[in-house]
Amino acid sequence: MARTFDITPLRSLAAVATTGGVHRAAESLVITQSAVSQHLRRLEREAGTALVRRDGRRIAFTPDGEELLAHARAILAAHDAAVARFDTAADDTVVIGAAQNSAAVVLPLVMSRLRERFPDKDVRFHLDRHATVRTMLDHARVDVVVTTRVAPELAPRGDGFRLRWLWSADAPTPADTDPVPLVTFSPPCTLRQPTFDGFSAVGRPWRLAVEVNDLATGLDAVRAGIGTMLVPVLDRLPDGLVALDDAPLPPTIQLGVAYSDHTRPEIGATVTEVLAEQLGTDRVELAHNAAFPMPA
Fold first, then answer.
1. Where would I find the H helices in 224-261?
2. Hey, where are the domains in the chain?
3. Is the pLDDT reported for residue 71 higher than 80?
4. pTM to 2 decimals?
5. Structure confidence by residue, pLDDT tens digits, 94-113
6. Are 1-86 and 89-148+255-296 in the same CATH fold?
7. Furthest-apart CA pair in the chain: how many Å?
8. Which residue in 68, 51, 69, 47 sits closest to 60, CA to CA?
9. In this structure, which CATH number among 3.40.190.10, 1.20.120.330, 3.90.226.10, 3.30.830.10 belongs to the domain 162-251?
10. Rounded to an integer, what distance in angstroms lies between the CA atom of residue 282 and that of residue 161?
11. Which residue has the higher pLDDT, 205 or 238?
């Protein structure tokens, strides 16, 4: 019998990579953690090989898992485009696009609230690279996009929503005389240049240790002690990670809620309001997609 990779398990696989773990993937998909785990096991049975490896509550992809993940993203993109083309109930659906680097912050804040605000609509998330979800917004495949914007005009924060330099809880920090190893998303990425600029601005040597395409792989590289990564967080850091001692002050950021000419006004306003209630009105900006610069 030919192998078959069903859409639902593939969506769970992509969500684990985007959000950094099973728990957050389950939140983003509004299903249980056990369902996500079952989907991963189902894919492994179908592939005939291990796709992920677990270390306590943490999860990382095997080389075969990384390869299937790339196929999964292509399949899901084609599937969702076809659904959007023939979806006659688009007015009954709200699709929020979110950039990977902010997805772990955004999802817990807005999913339940949006379902409360739009009880008669099917609220969905599409999590992907910044440029991808912005392009989807231009083509009316998502209603709004929540993304990260560096905002140097805002005062730094000592708590709440902010950027942190993350480091492994189990690895020694780099010596003062050694270049700081950096983990960052491959371009384009909003936080890529600020990652390099942070250490350059204080005269601290650095080197690019790892480039990644998804959050889970980046966080796993940090946990392994390969380097530090600049990540948006709330007060709780991801498991197995700590703030890097003596790191430069991270840049201040906002969440941007981008809309397009196709966006229903009440959706953009509601997403902005819900986020502002949690993060503060100065930390969330609503603007047209064309007003947000694309990252380098």
1. none
2. 1-86, 89-148+255-296, 162-251
3. yes
4. 0.71
5. 889 888 777 777 877 787 78
6. no
7. 61
8. 51
9. 3.40.190.10
10. 11
11. 205
